[in-house]
Design brief:
Blueprint (H helix, E strand, L loop, with lengths): L2 H4 L3 H19 L12 H19 L5 H19 L10 H24 L1
């Protein structure tokens, strides 16, 4: 399968939505499983949202940079709002949302132009 066949494909979209669902579930579990290497919370946020930005770029090639940024940033904000629910025993932190958003900006600025050239 060629690169161009993956862009915008149902498989790429399914991978994006699966990754988004996985990130959301891991973010709201009261005791999420340990991650290999034991990265700190900010690094986990950065890795998750960088991955979502890459997958989103492949899955939705017609989306503008601004739309992708706003959508993923709002998703990060949603996670922080949900984590503020006391019954979840999670900590909501605006710095996590900022880390999510910065990761998305960096990845979109680096990856999107390369993909659009092909």
């Amino acid at each position: 399968m060629k690169f161009s066949d993956w862009r915008g494909s149902h498989v790429a979209q399914l991978l994006f939505w699966a990754a988004a669902a996985f990130a959301f579930v891991m973010a709201i579990l009261p005791q999420p499983p340990a991650v290999p290497g034991a990265p700190n919370d900010k690094m986990q946020h950065i890795a998750a949202f960088a991955t979502l930005a890459v997958l989103g770029t492949f899955a939705f090639p017609g989306a503008t940079l601004l739309r992708m940024l706003v959508s993923l940033s709002l998703f990060g904000a949603l996670i922080e709002v949900v984590q503020a629910i006391p019954a979840l025993h999670r900590d909501s932190d605006i710095l996590d949302w900022i880390a999510d958003t910065v990761a998305v900006i960096v990845v979109l600025m680096a990856v999107r132009p390369l993909i659009n050239r092909r």
